[in-house]
Amino acid sequence: MRTALYEAAHVILTRSVKGCGLKSWVARLAKRAGMKKAKVALARKLAVVLHRMWTDGTSFVFTAKTITALAV
Is the separation of the CB atoms in 29 and 38 below 8 Å? Predict the structure, then answer.
């Protein structure tokens, strides 16, 4: 699971579209802390979101508002 989350973070950071709030958050973090730490932080953020969805039983709905909320 850790590998999959880290890979997802890598893809978001390197191949995601411009203007994504989550990508801009992790890019700012990468400038301060380095690329590896930023990927781990993003992987953890994704894990927290997935765990919360799992415990709530909610479905993920992709919207610009959702991505902006994740970047906070």
Answer: yes
Angstrom CA distances, 20 to 55, 64, 69, 70, stand at 26, 8, 11, 10
pLDDT at residue 21, rounded to an integer: 78
Phi, psi of 34 (to 5 degrees): 105, 155
**Long-range CB contacts (within 8 A, 24+) of 24-27:** 24/71, 25/70, 25/71, 25/72
Q: Which helix (H) or strand (E) holds 28?
A: helix 21-33
Check: pTM over 0.85? Answer yes or no: no
Spatial separation of the C-alpha atoms in residues 34 and 51, rounded to whole Å:
26
